[in-house]
């Protein structure tokens, strides 16, 4: 019975890795729509977001089977409940990547975005999501804590983008609407970083029983 349980836990790890990889793809694809805001690129982001939703349902079903059929002990219960919380955050990451892609419909190809640090924010949030999921699979608390600390980098980039946008509006008032849309995009990236922090905190809970 325990062997079967261990096999299912391993499958849970694999599925979480796949869902995390989809989140990474969605963030990267959404960032590309800023550079080339085409319908085809947006369609790819939307499809990735739908695949993330499907993966969330699959993992949720797996967790329910583990809870109902295997009678897990306390440490296993923490792990499974943490996974359920994590997939909720990853699903939100997919939603926000989709929101970013949708925002690009309203952003004119004015070249404004190339003067901002939004692409750097995208790369930073991909790193946070990757590391947060890895920390769960590897049960690596040091990596989880590093994700929490790295959130300061994303927050600093967001503040930098805000300052850049304020300067751009003063320099080019006619680009004001585009700048506001880009600020919303930066905010979505900042929120994705927050979700990665949430994931790392659930990693800590699964290992220690304490949630920050």
Automatic annotation (TrEMBL):
<dbReference type="InterPro" id="IPR028366">
    <property type="entry name" value="PhoU"/>
</dbReference>
<dbReference type="InterPro" id="IPR038078">
    <property type="entry name" value="PhoU-like_sf"/>
</dbReference>
<keyword id="KW-0963">Cytoplasm</keyword>
<comment type="similarity">
    <text>Belongs to the PhoU family.</text>
</comment>
<feature type="domain" description="PhoU">
    <location>
        <begin position="16"/>
        <end position="103"/>
    </location>
</feature>
<dbReference type="Pfam" id="PF01895">
    <property type="entry name" value="PhoU"/>
</dbReference>
<keyword id="KW-0813">Transport</keyword>
<comment type="subunit">
    <text>Homodimer.</text>
</comment>
<dbReference type="InterPro" id="IPR026022">
    <property type="entry name" value="PhoU_dom"/>
</dbReference>
<keyword id="KW-0592">Phosphate transport</keyword>
<feature type="domain" description="PhoU">
    <location>
        <begin position="118"/>
        <end position="203"/>
    </location>
</feature>
<comment type="function">
    <text>Plays a role in the regulation of phosphate uptake.</text>
</comment>
<protein>
    <recommendedName>
        <fullName>Phosphate-specific transport system accessory protein PhoU</fullName>
    </recommendedName>
</protein>
